Amino acid sequence: MSRSGSHDVIVVGAGVAGLAAATVLHEAGRRVICLEARTRVGGRLLSLPVDGGALDLGATWFWPGEKRVAALAARTGTEVFDQHSAGDAVLQDGTGVRRHPGNTIDVPAYRFATGAQRLASVLAAALPEDAVLLDTPVTAIRPADGDGVDVHTSERTFGAAQVVLAVPPALALERIDFGDALSESLVRLARSTPVWMGAIAKVVAHYSSPFWREEALAGAAFSRSGPLQEIHDMSGADGRPAALFGFAHASAVRPGFEDAVAAQLGACFGPAAASPEALHVQDWSREPWTAPRSVHALADHSLFGHPRYRQPALGGRLHWASTETATGHAGHIEGALLSGERAAHAVLSSATHNRSVTSG
């Protein structure tokens, strides 16, 4: 196994949290490298390009007051627009489907005209060449001799002064070997922390036009009989591309699932909805670089933003970043950005402190 040159900081994960951390560190003059297991950047920001725009198979919205996302969209030239909400909603239960006057399901929110993944792509492109290595899963992290840390992959070992771990904590504990370097209490916390969207399947139905709007329907539905528990309009700003999307428990994705979804869409929005041009099912529980095997058993969302995630591990050399570790807006893109910025500033503060101690 070869050994790479030393860096100031290694960021594990090129989702938006990791890329936000890498950006802050790079702008502060640190030598940073981001290691990503997937063959793409973005993590749970995943957008499928289609004629006229993109369909988000992962994160879709951001909300008023989420200033980091708004600022990043403006800085990267990412066009945003209001989530469509005009029209009536649909309620579905065991007795049937009924139309509800007005839309009490959707709340004011914003969408990305070219898909949420663009935020990550632009951040990655602004980093130095070779600062983001794709298809490079991290297999082990160990304290190095002296004050550094060694980050192992199957082919190389990277050395750095510090590391930012920008993946869901439970996934990190399943995929990365830390030996006995982490305390038992921290290991228990990380293994117990749910993965946002980790046990959810997102379904996007693509149509030639947003025909439901012609019937004064908002494209919003709430269901107690499923398989989709809630449904929203995912059409572009001008109605193109036209799409509806919904969420289902990942455990519902089994043979016959797509037919059941099509039938549900038809029941809620009329016969045309039962025949989409394409039906995209993104089961996040089957994404090996998102969800650990235990994902369906992780349900204590009060662990999001736990104080322990603000305390560096490995003797101050390892910093946590992912939307699950955010102290605010956990589960949102805003939370991911917050966690990445917090981890980067913790790295910079630690480095400044260490230099002060050394010079003193």
Break the fold down into its secondary structure elements and pairings:
Blueprint: E1 2-3, E2 7-12, H1 16-27, E3 32-35, E4 47-50, E5 53-56, H2 67-75, E6 80-82, E7 88-93, E8 96-100, E9 110-112, H3 117-126, E10 132-133, E11 138-143, E12 149-153, E13 156-165, H4 169-175, H5 184-192, E14 200-207, E15 217-223, E16 230-233, E17 242-249, H6 257-269, E18 278-283, E19 318-320, H7 333-359
Parallel strand pairs: 1-13, 2-3, 2-13, 3-10, 7-15, 13-19
Antiparallel strand pairs: 4-5, 6-9, 7-8, 11-12, 12-13, 14-17, 14-18, 15-16, 16-17
Helix pairs in contact: 1-3, 1-7, 4-5
Architecture overview:
- With 360 residues, the protein is an alpha/beta fold.
- The protein folds into two domains: 1-45 and 116-197 and 291-360, FAD/NAD(P)-binding domain, CATH 3.50.50.60; 46-66 and 79-114 and 199-286, Polyamine Oxidase, Chain A, domain 2 (Alpha-Beta Complex).
- Helix content is 24%, strand content 27%.
- The chain has seven helices and 19 strands.
- Strands 1, 2, 3, 10, 11, 12, 13 and 19 form an eight-stranded mixed beta sheet that branches.
- A hairpin with a 2-residue loop joins strand 12 and strand 13 (156-165).
- Helix 1 packs parallel to helix 3 (117-126).
- The radius of gyration is 22 Å and the shape is elongated.
